[in-house]
Amino acid sequence: MIFTYRYCMMLEEGSFRGRRADFAFMFIFGAVFMIICGTFVHMVFLGQAFTIMLVYVWSRRNPYVRMNFFGVLSFNAPYLPWVLLLFSLLLGNNAIVDFMGIACGHFYFFLEDVFPLQQNGFRVLQTPHLLKWLLDPVPIEPVDIDERPGGFNWGEQPPRPE
């Protein structure tokens, strides 16, 4: 739960700042991807996979952040999902859930951040306009100086009569 909260917050305040609809679309994409994969591997609870997906996307978008695991292991952020996978294996948990989260996060990261930058690349994942209309804030247009209220010329000399 702490991982979900922490990495959700860091993604929302970092790479998704001011883009609520894109953030929600990442959740929807992850949920649909994991539900489809979950039916093939007969998994019902996919919360751990969703958390690993969030960690993966955050870690790939912040590659130079240094991480410290229990004060023993120091590494860069892109290795965090793999360290969590190894830790999960050491605890005797099923690795399929973590692999599903890593696969979903990698698929999202590739389609959103890597493929559009390739030659002849384009954005595959387009946030629906309805989601943008519902969640994104309306941009505030700055008021032109001539249209601002007030306009008092206090301290200026009055025009001289000719």
From TrEMBL:
GO terms for biological process: response to stress. It is a multi-pass membrane protein. GO terms for cellular component: endoplasmic reticulum membrane. Its main location: endoplasmic reticulum. It comes from the Eukaryota. InterPro entries: DER1. The chain crosses the membrane at residues 26-59, 79-111. It is found in: Endoplasmic reticulum membrane. The keyword Membrane applies. Keywords: Endoplasmic reticulum, Membrane, Transmembrane, Transmembrane helix. PANTHER family: DER1-LIKE PROTEIN, DERLIN. May be involved in the degradation of misfolded endoplasmic reticulum (ER) luminal proteins. Belongs to the derlin family. This is Derlin. It comes from Litomosoides sigmodontis. The lineage of its organism: Eukaryota, Metazoa, Ecdysozoa, Nematoda, Chromadorea.
